Structures are given as C-alpha cells and as structure tokens.
What does this fold into?
Amino acid sequence: MTDACNALFDAARSVRERAYAPYSGYKVGAAILDDNGNVFCGTNTENASFPLGACAEGNAIGAMVAGGGTRIDRIAIVGGRDAPEDCTPCGGCRQRIAEFAYKQTEIHVLAANGTVKVFTMDELLPAAFQWPEKSAE
Ligand code: THU
It folds into this structure.
C-alpha cells in the first residue's frame, strides 16, 4: 500500500470506532479522498426505527459535500463486527458513490485477511443510472 492509501485507511479505521451500530453490531468507517486532496469521513449511524439508519459511505459523502468537495478520487472502507470483514458498499451506496465518482474512481476495501481489495466504480456499478445531462460531463 502507498502512504496515501495507508493514511486513508487509518482515517476509515478510526472513524469506524465511532460507529453507532447498537442494533447490528456491524461497524463501518468510510474515508473519501476528493479531487482536491481533502479527506472526509463518515460512519454508520443506526436508529431504533431500523430503515432510518444511515451507511458510512453516505455520511462521508455528506461530509464531502458540506466541506465543498465535488468529486471522489478514492474511497477506503473498513467494516465488520469484531474485526474487519470484506465490506463492499451496499447497492444503495454504490449509486451514492457513483453520483460523485469517475468510472475509474477506486473503492478500496479492507478484506478479512488484512489485504486490500481494490475495485473501480465501473466494476462495482456497471451501466450505472445517470441523470441525462450529467452523463455528458
Ligand atoms: N453498512 C454501511 O455502513 N455501509 C455499507 O455499505 C453496508 C452496510 C451499515 C449499515 C448498518 O448500520 C450495518 O452496516 C449493517 O448493515
């Protein structure tokens, strides 16, 4: 792993510690590196009314938007119960990430054996829905 990847995973690991996941016990941390080199983090935040829970990736995206970021260069995700398991983004989060990603944006996932799995946006969500005018960008 490069130093930049290590730093992004450190950020994802530490925000994961703050997850609010009393119902599932499954803690997720996500750290985004945006186009300008800024890092934004999010963690899953559950709710007693289960469908209202929010995923880590969506919360990291919200932080990026609030912080003035517009595009995701790379995102690191660390998720699991006691120890990190392979936590690839859920279907909804793939669409959320795609909104701000390039086809070649990399999604880095800490795998159960401690190695890192790297996917491109296009691999995780091929033929993604895009708003017509936006697909011209
Ligand atoms: N979760 C995420 O935060 N991101 C994902 O991509 C998959 C699932 C959270 C939602 C819920 O709080 C817990 O993990 C178990 O589904």
Q: What stands out?
A: The mean pLDDT is 95. The longest strand covers residues 101-110. The longest helix spans residues 3-16.
